[in-house]
Amino acid sequence: MPQKRCAIWSSASEDSSNSDSSLSGNESSHSSPTPIIKSKAQKASDKGKQPQKKSLKKPNRSRDSERDQCLHVARWIPRAIDMYVVLKDTFRIGILLEQEESAKDGTLIEDDAAKKERQETLEHVKKDVQERSLRTYKRILTSAPYLRTLIKGNTKKHRKELGHILSEKSRAMMGVNHPQLAAMLCPIKHLAAYRENPKKIQGELQSGHIKMHAAAWPAFAYEGDSPGEDFNPLDMQNGIFKGYLMKRVFQHIFKGPSSALANDGEVVTTRSG
After folding, report:
1. CA distances from 237 to 113, 178, 247 (A)
2. pLDDT tens digits, one per residue of 25-54
3. In this structure, what DSSP letter does residue 178 have?
4. What is the largest CA-CA distance in the chain?
5. String of b and e for 171-207 (b: at least 16 CB within 10 Å)?
6. pLDDT tens digit string along 126-166?
7. Separation between Cα atoms, residue 30 and residue 59, nearest integer Å
8. Where are the domains of the chain?
């Protein structure tokens, strides 16, 4: 029997390795068996135990969908509700006006100190601004009811999340706060004074001493190497809407981006389609 066993292993070895050597019966009889590797599930099954599945924590999809709702509405606010809305101011004024309405119809009970504080705050807001803010505030809440939940919530978590949604990047160096932009936004009739004393006029623009309204054309609307340089106070219509930026933006919108920085009279070809 040992010899027969040796012959079988020897022939198998010859077929697999194509060598002339043969295995001895002693070597074949002491060959180690192939180890069997079992998975954890098989080991547990061998012991009579069923493998336990890890429980995965389900994500809070309702909270994600509520935030997505707010983001979706936020994208449409400047397009469909109010292009120039400032959410923090709108919500602050809207909440105060809503509290005032609730106090009048008796659904809100408040002390005299809270009432006085609200009235003092609203006294500094014009009536038309109050009406617009309240109208915008209600339209936003109608579109994103989740914000109403955060407003009504009294927990710190609710207030923090509402503040995060309404937060916006700093604009400290935009508009008249920027040294170069202030010269471009300065009403054209004050441009000469701005060139003589930029810091003084910029301060008056920031404080509102110099009014910036629709009838006060900004310097960048007039032509010149620097905005409004060629302005003639005796002929205010001369050069208006010929400012460098206005011409470039007009060309970018109506003729194509490649024509925006082209020289006057330069022909620029555009691709079809």
Report:
1. 55, 27, 16
2. 444 444 444 444 445 455 555 555 555 555
3. S
4. 126
5. eeeeebeeeeebbbbbbbebbeebeeeeeebbebbee
6. 998 999 999 999 998 888 888 888 887 777 888 787 777 77
7. 57
8. 61-166, 175-242
Q: How far apart are CA 74 and CA 72, in angstroms?
A: 5
Which CA distances in Å does 147 have to 22, 67, 171, 210, 255? 84, 9, 24, 38, 42
SS3 state of residue 240: strand
Report yes or no: 232 and 200 within 8 Å, Cβ to Cβ.
no
> Dihedral angle at the C-alpha atoms of 232, 236, 239, 243, nearest 10 degrees?
100
Residues 127 and 88: beta-carbon distance below 8 Å? no
243 contacts 222 by C-beta, under 8 angstroms: yes
Type of residue at 3 = Q
pTM of the model: 0.39
Q: Where do the H-state alpha helices sit in the chain?
A: 2-17, 25-29, 40-46, 61-76, 87-104, 112-122, 127-143, 145-152, 156-166, 179-185, 191-196, 198-207, 244-254
- Contact present, 215 and 248 (Cβ < 8 Å): no
Classified as helix, coil or strand, 187 is strand
For the record, the structure tokens of 43 come out as 């080991």
Distance CA 149, CA 153 (A): 6
In whole angstroms, give the CA distance from residue 194 to residue 149.
Answer: 49
Closest CA to 151 of 70, 86, 72: 70
